[in-house]
Amino acid sequence: MFATDLDMQILAALTAAACALPGAYLVLRRMAFISDAISHVMLPGIVLTFLLVPDLESPLLRFGAALSGVATVALVELLQRTRLVREDAAIGLVYPALLAIGLVLVSLKTGDIHLDIDSVLVGDLGLAASRKIPIGGRYLVSVAALEMGAIL
User: Any bridge partners for residue 132, and if so which?
Assistant: First the structure.
């Protein structure tokens, strides 16, 4: 099932609305870079979960990704509270370290499996909006739009 321009626009609008309030809060705390860090360091969580549950369709992959994001925030806060580094420097230390761990795990442990690293690192709105749920025999709404609506 292909995503139309409307599907992608709806998904983008829901994502923007869901990110607006926490985004403003992070900017005020001088931690705007943390959202980028969290989105990229989900890779080690996905890979580690995949190594435990070798199923690319498993919902546990999302749980592993979420745990990885929470670990990122915890490590950044821990570093920041030592008062040895500022907020942005703490993010700059944790983010590349965890991303590097994820990339090493992918190259060493999952070399023969296609985890679609480009989608994890960059994302693709067209792919995200293309998986749809049939309603009354027609494909009207994407799974990603429902998920973002719930998050919003």
Answer: 142
